C-alpha cells in the first residue's frame, strides 16, 4: 500500500509551511520533486531548500527529482490537459515503483493548496484507476490568494458579498461573472483584465507572492492596467517564468 501525501507548502516562503505540512514531510519515506525545465529552476530550488531546512532526518528520507512532462500547446485545451495528466500519472507511478517497491509513504510538495487550481488530486485518482493501491492524504497550505490579500492588507470580499474565483481564460472569454462583487483571477497568461471596462474596476495584483522578488501593484484599471502588463512582461523576461494573481472589485473592500 502506498500513502501519497499531497502537502500544501504555500508560496515558497518557509514561514508559510504549517506544522501539519512539516509533520507530513518528515513522515515520508520518499519525496518526489518535479523539474519543470531550466526556465523554472527557481521552483525546484525552493523545494530543495524546504527539504534541506525542514527534514529532521534527511539521511533516512529518499529525495528523488524527476522531469515533469510538458503540456501540449494544441488548441484543444481540455484534451491537452487530460493527456498531460495521464503522462504525469505514469511518471509518478514509475518513480514510486522504482524507489518504493515495497510500499510506504510518498510526499509531493504542492504549491499553495492542493484544492485550489491544482491538479494533483486528479492525477492521484488516475493512479488508483490504473490499479495502484493508493491512500491519499491532503495537507492544506496557504494559497497565493491569501498571501495577496494579506500583502495588500485587504479582505477577500466586500461586506456580505460573494467572491468568484476564476481563470484568466474564463475572464477573457466571458467577461465579468454575473452577480460577482469581487473576482479573484488565477492562471492568467497575461492581461485578461483588458477585456473588461477599465473605468470602474479596481485591481490588486501580485507576482511571486511570498518570495524575495515579490511585486505588488494596485489601483484603478484605467490608471495601472498598462503598468501591470509592462511590469509583468519585464519580470518574466528577467526570471524566465512568472506566477501572478489578482483581485478585481467594483466596490470598496474596506
Automatic annotation (TrEMBL):
Pathway stated in the Swiss-Prot or TrEMBL entry: Cofactor biosynthesis; adenosylcobalamin biosynthesis
InterPro entries hit by this protein: 4pyrrol_Mease, 4pyrrol_Methylase_sf, 4pyrrole_Mease_sub1, 4pyrrole_Mease_sub2, CobF
EC class of the enzyme, as a word: transferase
EC number, as in UniProt: 2.1.1.152
Any one of the GO BP annotations: methylation
Pfam families to which the protein is assigned, alphabetical: TP_methylase
Keywords per UniProt: Cobalamin biosynthesis, Methyltransferase, S-adenosyl-L-methionine, Transferase
MF GO annotations: precorrin-6A synthase (deacetylating) activity
Domain Tetrapyrrole methylase: 3-222
Coiled-coil zones: none
NCBIfam families assigned: CobF (TIGR02434)
Name by which UniProt lists this protein: Precorrin-6A synthase (Deacetylating)
Provenance organism: Vreelandella neptunia
Gene name of the encoded protein: cobF
Amino acid at each position: 500500500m502506498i500513502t501519497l501525501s499531497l502537502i500544501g507548502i504555500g508560496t515558497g516562503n518557509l514561514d508559510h509551511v504549517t506544522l501539519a505540512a512539516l509533520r507530513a514531510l518528515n513522515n515520508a519515506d520518499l519525496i518526489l520533486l518535479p523539474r519543470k525545465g531550466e526556465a523554472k529552476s527557481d521552483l525546484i530550488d525552493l523545494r530543495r531548500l524546504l527539504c534541506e531546512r525542514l527534514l529532521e532526518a534527511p539521511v533516512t528520507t529518499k529525495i528523488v527529482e524527476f522531469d515533469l512532462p510538458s503540456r501540449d500547446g494544441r488548441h484543444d485545451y481540455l484534451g491537452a490537459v487530460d493527456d498531460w495528466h495521464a503522462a504525469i500519472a505514469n511518471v509518478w507511478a514509475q518513480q514510486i515503483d522504482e524507489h518504493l517497491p515495497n510500499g510506504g509513504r510518498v510526499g509531493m510538495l504542492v504549491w499553495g493548496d492542493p484544492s485550489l487550481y491544482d491538479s494533483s488530486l486528479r492525477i492521484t485518482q488516475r493512479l488508483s484507476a490504473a490499479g495502484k493501491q493508493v491512500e491519499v492524504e491532503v495537507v492544506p497550505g496557504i494559497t497565493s490568494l491569501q498571501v495577496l490579500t494579506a500583502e495588500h492588507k485587504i479582505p477577500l470580499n466586500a461586506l456580505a458579498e460573494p467572491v468568484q474565483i476564476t481563470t484568466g481564460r474564463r475572464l477573457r472569454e466571458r467577461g465579468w461573472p454575473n452577480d460577482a462583487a469581487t473576482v479573484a483571477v488565477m492562471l492568467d497568461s497575461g492581461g485578461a483584465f483588458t477585456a473588461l471596462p477599465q473605468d470602474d474596476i479596481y485591481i490588486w495584483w501580485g507576482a511571486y507572492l511570498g518570495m524575495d522578488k515579490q511585486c505588488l501593484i494596485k489601483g484603478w484599471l484605467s490608471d495601472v492596467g498598462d503598468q501591470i502588463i509592462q511590469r509583468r512582461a519585464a519580470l518574466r523576461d528577467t526570471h524566465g517564468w512568472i506566477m501572478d494573481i489578482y483581485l478585481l472589485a467594483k466596490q470598496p473592500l474596506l
